[in-house]
Structure formats: structure tokens, C-alpha cells
Amino acid sequence: xxxxxxxxxVLVAAYAGFQWTVRVVVYPQMAGVGAxxxxxxxxxxxxxxxxxxxxxxxxxxxTCWLVVLALRGSAPAVPVxxxxxxxxxxxxxxxxxxxxxxxxxxxGWDAVAHRRLLRVDSxxxxxxxxxxxxxxxxxxx
Length: 141
Fold this sequence. Notes:
The chain crosses the membrane at residues 52-71, 77-99, 120-140. The protein is mainly alpha-helical and 141 residues long. It has helices at residues 2-30, 37-71, 77-105, 111-140.
């Protein structure tokens, strides 16, 4: 379980760092794009998917594996389940909150959609950070 927990920690830490970068750098700079925003947004969606897709997939696999181990009593349940809840919040906020706002922005700049995206992203940052704390807890005990 130790190798699995460390791999999980690496994936969760990579995602948390990615999410903080998106929240602090990528999304705020969208407001300054100006003309050509729709093309910028489409390119952003294509490029970001190449990074976030594998991170989501990796976390999904390690989280499910850890949950199975926790149910069998082979992994500590509390940090595993806490991490699972955090990942569920991130995925839910992404699919139910961020993706719809990106679809609006795909048609062109929309200040309201951008503000909503920033709010949703704050939820993802908080959940990713809490998930990182749970993964550290899992590894360090």
C-alpha cells in the first residue's frame, strides 16, 4: 500500500499545483485577452485537457484502489475517504460548474461567465488542497 499511497500523493499534489496555477495565473489573465477570445478559449480547452485528463484519470484509479483497500481494512479509512470526497467535489465542480462556463466562454468573452468560473474554481482549489492534505495524512499516517 505504501507505493500506491505515494503514487496517489504525487498525482494529488500535481493536480493541486495545476489547479492553483489555473486559479492564480490562467483564469485571471483571460480578462485581458480581448479580440480573438473565442479562439483563445477553444485553444485553452484543448491544451488544458491534455494536462487535466491524465491527472483526473490517475487520481480516479488510485482513489478507487485505495477505497477498496480501506473497505478491506488494509488502508486507513478516514484519509482515504476524505480524499475520495475531495476528488468527488473537484470532479462535480468541474463537470457541473466549470465546463458549462467554458461553453459560454467558447462563444466569446462573457464577464458574468468568467466570474462564475472563478467562483467554481475557488471550490476546486479548496477541494484539491484538502485532497492534498488527506493524501499527505495517508502517507505519513
